[in-house]
Amino acid sequence: MSEQRRKIPAFISSALKTFYGFWVNLSEQIPYERWRLASLHSLPFWVGAIISAGLAVVYSKMFSWFENIAVYLVQSHEWVFLALCPLLLLISALMVKYWARAAGGSGIPQILAALGPERINNTKHLDTLLGVKTFFVKLVSSLIAITGGAVIGREGPTIQLSGSVFYLIHKYLPKGWPRI
Description:
By secondary structure, this protein is mainly alpha-helical. The protein is built from 8 helices and no strands. The chain has helices at 3-6, 10-27, 33-76, 78-99, 108-114, 123-130, 132-147, 155-171. The longest helix is centred in the first third of the chain and has 44 residues, at 33-76. The protein is elongated, with a radius of gyration of 20 Å. The two termini are 15 Å apart. Mean pLDDT is 84; it is low at 1-6.
């Protein structure tokens, strides 16, 4: 187990252990071993799917809000928008350049690269493409860029953010949990 896997906040670790204990106790009541293991294997996927779906909805709403802010600025304060546009785009680009280069681009090539053969036993590669820092930089920089008038689709970033959710769930699964 890698060092990075152990560096999670204590409250998350205790919540995961509590949930894991609850789920193991619940799954022990399932009469067939095969069904019990199937339920243990499927739970991380269900949790990831629920979190990703909620994230996609929230991101879509945020995207629309920030888009509406840009439209409002263009329609009512053209000179303010003219000054803010390059500043916001610069901030967004600098966030990506200095904090998480993998947050640049649409997000789909990053997911394809994460699924490539380099990923096997290479957590540094996956952390670069789908880690926590990349997740937050992708989220914030895309919202700042859309406010600055950038033409961005929300599908690619949503795919990368959802891929990050599934990767982080896999990364922080408790030790005794069946591996995905």
